[in-house]
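Hey, I'm writing a tutorial for new members on how sequence and structure tokens pair up, and I'd like a real worked example in the thread rather than a made-up one. If someone can provide the structure for the chain below, I'll link this post from the tutorial.
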Amino acid sequence: MSRIGKLPITLPTGVKVNWKAPVIEVVGAKTTLSRKLHQTIDVNLIDSKIIVKPKVETPDSRALWGLSRTLVNNMVQGVSAGFTKILEVVGVGWRVELTDPQTLKLSLGFSHPVDFKLPAGVSAVVDAKANRITLNSADKELLGLTAARIRAYRKPEPYKGKGIKYAGERIQRKVGKAGGK
């Protein structure tokens, strides 16, 4: 049995779930999220709890059981509280601006600034003094993908530590070349 999959998901107040196999829709105060689950997974709504179970005990359905439960739990948390990722921009002269509510202007040492268009459902707040980008979204998967795409412009390098990194991320530093003999 899946240790994660067998745990029930408790619904916070104000969150409603609609299950029409294989699509689950979660409606909350922030937004509405829907996802198509695998056909071997079944969802039961009992009182204010969601129970995810496999329809048939096969190796494939057992492998997808815990994943499906986690995906549904992330949807419930997203529509009620939302998710946040913080990125830090480290580099001399590197800046971040929010030109309009959905476009980030990144000055990262290239010969031109990079305009990054945020996907629908993701919002950003920029702290220009600390060079921090705070991304917010109800969809955890989309939020992580957006943060990874922004970070991919300049990943942190190990010698000087310059780059775009997640808040709290520790960069393994390397020693540079020796000065000579």
